[in-house]
Amino acid sequence: MTVPPANGTIFQQGLVLWGRGGFYRILLEDGPVDCRLRGKLKRRHTQMVAAETDGVCAGDAVRVSLFPQGENEYNGMVEAVLPRKNFLPRPRIANIDISVAVLAARDPACDLLLLDKILLVAAHYGINAAICFNKADLDGGDLPALVALYRDLGFAAVAVSAKTGQGLDELKLMLRDKVSVLAGPSGVGKSSLLNWLLPELMAPVGDISARLHRGRHTTRHVSLLSLPAGGLTADSPGFSLLDLPADLTAERLPLLYPEFSRYAGDCRFLGCRHRNEPGCAVKENVRQGRINAGRYERYLRLAGELK
Ligand code: GDP
Ligand code: ZN
Hints:
Elements: E1 10-20, E2 23-28, E3 31-37, H1 39-50, E4 61-70, E5 73-81, E6 87-88, E7 93-94, E8 98-104, H2 112-124, E9 129-134, H3 143-152, E10 156-159, H4 168-175, E11 179-183, H5 190-197, H6 205-212, E12 224-226, E13 232-234, H7 258-261, H8 281-287, H9 293-305
Parallel strand pairs: 3-5, 8-9, 8-11, 9-10, 11-13
Antiparallel strand pairs: 1-2, 1-4, 2-3, 4-5, 6-7, 12-13
Helix pairs in contact: 2-9, 5-6
The structure holds guanosine-5'-diphosphate and zinc ion.
Zinc ion (ZN) binds next to α8.
């Protein structure tokens, strides 16, 4: 929505692709423009980042003012950051539409405890989660059964191979027109998948891999990159999704399991944690096979980790 006021300044809403050295690349209607932060925003941002909280980051929806410099050339200034729907702290990304948990059929072994953790940490942050089982070309993990199990729980799930290309159209569809981030342990094929998803970056392959493998302490410079079919994806995995957040309590944990919430209303006690409480409807439904026993056992282990 372009509003041309008398002095030639134009105001637009945009989306932050990345920020570096005081400049922010903002995706506007007609393409990206590099902007600085308006003074008061900059001071607030500096304080917040120093305190390791939010500040302006990739994925933020912002209001930008554009000052004409020449023909089709603008100087831009970020005037305001709009309210966020969610925020991932490491790397700092806002307004994620979908986080995709990436696991491998094997090499490394398919770690379902980690998968469940990623799904519930995403739920804790208010981010919609989906699953991509990679290395479908290798034997192992019984991927069709896993895909069926998690689809039953309401998660979008695909089995793909970054080696053969199988299933990748489904993955592309999953990410289409969305702001996405991949998350998963090292070695499952995240950078291989990004190389498929972002063909224009095929040339500097090492670049993406190097970035992905740079590790946990150097993930500040995340960028959102345009997907050919529409949408944006982060060039660095969502590391925060691999760890239980400090503010995730044992009371909240069971609320993040969609299959528990179907039955929790029938538990004898309000706020039942579905462990050893008498009259627990969740436990009863695990016994009767309506709730997957593996998921429930992994829940007990994660609940134990929270103490
Ligand atoms: P990342 O650590 O998650 O980024 O994983 P990489 O993309 O670096 O992949 C780790 C290893 O798995 C590399 O040797 C890849 O060649 C290999 N790999 C990735 N995807 C596949 C796949 O679909 N099938 C097979 N067989 N190997 C894969
Ligand atoms: Zn219960």
